[in-house]
């Protein structure tokens, strides 16, 4: 029975690109997941000291590309949740 070891993989050079692509995909997956875990504001690892991490980005903007739009004039229309109460926010016009 053939094995999946390194020596067995060296016997079939036509499969080397497949192995290379699998290794590259796993490397990209690891990099992407680590980057999201460490730098995305939507992900939090410490819920005890920061129970509502999304409130820090209420007025700030987290975006990949903003274009020419001025986000400083835009007001957040989402309600504020504190202690199971909803504090309504004024409905501003754009």
UniProtKB/TrEMBL annotation:
Matches recorded under InterPro entries: B12D
Protein name: Putative nadh dehydrogenase
Upper classification of the organism: Eukaryota, Metazoa, Ecdysozoa, Arthropoda, Hexapoda
